[in-house]
Amino acid sequence: MMKVFLVGLPGSGKTTLGKLLSKLMSMDFYDLDDEIEISEGRSINDIFRDKGEVYFREKEKFHLDRLIKLDKNIIISTGGGTPVFHNNMDSINKAGISVFIDITPQLAAQRIYHSEKKARPMVKDLSEEQVVHKVKELYTFRIPFYSQATLSFKTGNKDSSIFAGEIKKAILNHLDKIGRNIRF
After folding, report:
1. Which helix (H) or strand (E) holds 60?
2. Do the beta carbons of residue 156 and residue 108 sit within 8 Å?
3. Domain total in the chain
4. pLDDT tens per residue, range 68-92
5. Is 183 part of any domain?
């Protein structure tokens, strides 16, 4: 079975691209954070507040492993920190194709601050300047994990539909290069 994992900073567009890719490739889409929220019956913010990050990361690992075991072709949008914990990046790369959506920390911070800030536990109480600083720190810390991805794409404000088409083409080229014939 074919698994495609999208990794990258919060605000990089993993969920948007994952949904578009799932349509282009006729694969089911899963957002790892959504899976956790559904299972827990509460938001990621509430989980962080009530149970802490260690608990959240354990649930994240559980749901990542559960999705990996599904017997079907799927696209998975991971959380920004997923690759960093519990050897998740190794698990991801063993299970399928990982795609790093490489956004500048400044653009990610701008997107987070202006549209998603309240939904992000690590930045919800920060000023715009503090969000930029925090995202730069995250990028510096996480880039060694993200850079282990099978495929990597620099993004900016590209049109999401065009960008998803570029990712699909690269995935198909990669599969062809390694001799895997998967039909979508």
Report:
1. helix 44-68
2. no
3. 1
4. 999 999 999 999 999 999 999 999 9
5. no
Q: Tokens representing 24? A: 């282009």
For the entire predicted model, the pTM comes to: 0.94
Tens of pLDDT, residue by residue over 142-165, are: 999 999 999 999 987 789 999 999
Question: Whole domain around residue 136: which residue ranges?
Answer: 3-177
